[in-house]
Amino acid sequence: MNKSLLITREGWDALDKELKYLWKEERPRVTQSVSEAAAQGDRSENAEYIYGKKRLREIDRRIRFLSKRLDQLRIVEPDPRQEGRVFFGAWVKLEDDNGNIRIFRLVGADEFDPAKQWISIDSPVARALIGKRVDDEVVVSTPGGQVTYFVLEISYKPLFN
User: Fold this and answer.
1) Architecture of domain 6-75
2) Looking at residue 1, what is its pLDDT?
3) Which CATH number fits domain 80-155: 3.10.50.30, 3.40.630.10, 3.40.50.300, 3.40.630.30?
4) Distance (Å) of CA 20 to CA 66, 76, 114
């Protein structure tokens, strides 16, 4: 499955900030340290030089990826007409059959973060939630079996337990 090309404004800004940091700060700093290490003579046994060149390749790879990806992504801003229904960018409070409460935010594949409970719009839970309203029941197939959730709250601003 291809990753979706949708992203929130915050997600796009974070990737753009990373790209600018790598290009304007990190890469020049590493380039300078490689130059200094190269000036020390024999490069074949110079750990600083070898590590610096490796780090430059990693930075350049990430810069190329971010540059291409940012051109492809489409920023999705919340629309007032979405209120009351689950769409991209929504925070959703759910309750499972056991009374456990979970809050998820539906975000783009490039910005999902399990620690924040941000799930990719491409995930089974997010796909099952799209278009749902408060009090709707959602059944999600997981590797451990089916899980049923009830939609308690939907917001386009952060929700907290």
Assistant:
1) Orthogonal Bundle (1.10)
2) 46
3) 3.10.50.30
4) 10, 22, 25
